Amino acid sequence: MIKNVHGNTVDHLGEAIVNGRYPVGGAIPPEPVLCESLGVSRTVVREAVKSLVAKGLLTTGPKVGTRVQPEDQWNWFDADVIVWQTKAGLSVEFLRDLQDLRRVVEPAAVRLSALRATAADIRNMEEAFAGMKQAIEQGGDYITHDLRFHQGLISSSHNRMLVQMSRALGALLRTSFEISTSRKGGPASSLPLHRAVLDAVIARNPQRAEKAILVLIDGARDDIELVLASRKRIPKISNPATRLKAMAA
């Protein structure tokens, strides 16, 4: 998606904050300087600053100006913040926080899914699973189907709070899937684990579903640790989803 002037200005300032160009506690350049360097109007700069305040990256106040907030104030459920962080580089701590979050949210959602999923929910997850399987066997976009599968699990809990969280978790899950998918054979080995989760949901067995999703999450964690240990470059979620090559006959 092509962003407008406002979106590009938010991106420029957001990336500069996340990569440390503007340090925590420090002030960003004054409006006239930003207008000149970015080639935009004061209105655009002011609206961009408002957006970054809403995302928790900046704070404004009389006599202190506009200053960068500490990282623990940033909105880590904001897709833009996640993209900026991937461009700046993902830390081991960030990725482990993500896995901890998944271990808290997804098992609870899957237990509810096993009790509440409708026929339409099951159909949606079956289609996502079929897309994952086809991408492994014939090549293609595995990650988009993987994300649809997991978001389908959460949305089929029919809990409004979890559904809202699912939307916010999208960028975080995409980060995890990009990394674990980069491991050779990772998607193929995880496919039966996805099937086990879905079968437990279809069987209306919340205990089995919870156990199966924990196996899947912990497997993804192990894949991520292996990728980090190999020192491979972390994929950027600002790029199109990585496409798999077809399996050899």
What does this structure look like?
This protein is mostly helical. It folds into two domains: 5-73, Arc Repressor Mutant, subunit A (Orthogonal Bundle); 79-244, GntR ligand-binding domain-like (Four Helix Bundle (Hemerythrin (Met), subunit A)), CATH 1.20.120.530. The chain contains ten helices and four strands. It has a two-stranded antiparallel ribbon. Strands 3-4 form a two-stranded antiparallel sheet. The mean pLDDT is 88.
How many distinct folded domains? 2
- C-alpha-based Rg, rounded: 20 Å
Q: Total number of helical segments?
A: 10
**Average pLDDT for all residues:** 88
Largest sheet: 2 strands, antiparallel
**CATH fold call of the largest domain:** Four Helix Bundle (Hemerythrin (Met), subunit A)
Q: What is the name of the CATH architecture of the largest domain?
A: Up-down Bundle
Any idea what the CATH superfamily of the largest domain is called? GntR ligand-binding domain-like
Shape: elongated
CATH class of the largest domain: Mainly Alpha
Order of helices and strands: HHHEEHHHEHHHHE
Number of strands: 4
Strand order of the largest sheet: 1-2
Helix amount: 55-70%
The computed structural class is mainly alpha
Distance from N terminus to C terminus (CA atoms, Å) equals 36 Å
Poorly predicted runs of 5 or more residues: none
Strand content: under 5%
